[in-house]
Amino acid sequence: MFTSWTAKNPGRRFYGCPNYKDESMNCKYFMYIDDELTIQRYKDLFFNMHHDMKGMEDEIKELKLKLKKKACLECEERRVKYVRIVVFLVVVLTSVILRLCYF
């Protein structure tokens, strides 16, 4: 079972040949399950709502990717901070040890 999201038949479900989506098979057999919406305004509303929803889904994917990248940057910033602290401690401890050895 498939769902049409064309402007002419938005949300209309149909059965299609198992090869319907395979362009190399060139099978275009299908049969609608639902009745056609007869009022154009309903068709337009349904089509536009679906279009808007798909746009929101794409935006959600994009925002999730941005969050993931931001989390990675924050992890990298923390790692750099810890490396700086370790380097600072090594320098301080080395200088303390050298002073103790020479005095």
| SSE series | EEEH
Number of helices: 1
Distance between the termini: 86 Å
**Helical residue percent?**
55-70%
The description of the largest β-sheet is: 3 strands, antiparallel
Low-pLDDT residue spans: none
Written overview of the protein:
- This protein is mostly helical and 103 residues long.
- Helices cover 61% and strands 11% of the residues.
- Strands 1-2-3 form a 3-stranded antiparallel β-sheet, with no helix packed on it.
- Strand 1 and strand 2 (12-16) form a beta hairpin.
- The chain is rod-shaped and about 95 Å long.
- It starts with a strand and ends with a helix.
Structure at a glance:
The chain is mainly α and about 100 residues long. The chain has one helix at about 40-100; strands spanning about 1-5, 10-15, 30.
